[in-house]
Design brief:
By secondary structure, the protein is mostly beta strands. It has three helices and nine strands. The protein has one domain. The strands form two sheets. Strands 4-8-7-6-5 form a five-stranded antiparallel sheet.
Length: 157
């Protein structure tokens, strides 16, 4: 089972690539649902008009989202979330993170920043449980700050 803050070797069972985002949905009660699919390699024969190109990529393996191997990551209540194009994401060595693909941050620029853009009425006890979660996928980086650990459920079992 997938979890935040660990290596999550299940994601790389068939490929060294990250999972794919299938959907991001929020409802009127501030619940956030993120559906991801694990990567799966597909061997296919190239069929381009250029024979040289076909030869060059003949040993390549295409990686796609495995729609039979999907997970829902549900935050029952979130404070802040953002989704970024991974191509425009800069990583900062000063941030402290644990995990691979499903990250928990102990220190991050987003944690430093969010307090300047929200009015925080939570108790100190609630604030002490607050974490920054990162979901790193093939094309997206999703950051969520929440007071509770999200629930991860395998879909289509």
């Amino acid at each position: 089972m997938l979890e935040f803050g660990t290596v999550n070797e299940e994601i790389n069972k068939y490929s060294r690539l990250a999972p794919f985002v299938i959907s991001i949905t929020e409802n009127q009660d501030n619940q956030l649902s993120i559906i991801i699919a694990l990567p799966v390699p597909i061997k296919s024969k190239p069929n381009y008009d250029n024979p040289l190109l076909n030869e060059i990529i003949s040993d390549a393996t295409r990686v796609i989202a495995d729609l039979n191997n999907m997970y829902e990551i549900r935050f029952n209540e979130y404070i802040v979330y953002q989704c970024r194009n991974e191509s425009y994401t800069c990583f900062d060595d000063s941030e402290i993170r644990k995990g691979k693909y499903l990250i928990i941050f102990e220190k991050s620029k987003l944690l430093d920043y969010y307090e300047s853009v929200i009015c925080d009425f939570d108790s100190e006890n609630t604030r002490s449980k607050r974490k920054h979660y990162g979901i790193y996928t093939e094309n997206h980086i999703i950051d969520v700050i929440a007071n509770e650990t999200p629930k991860i459920t395998k879909l289509k079992e």
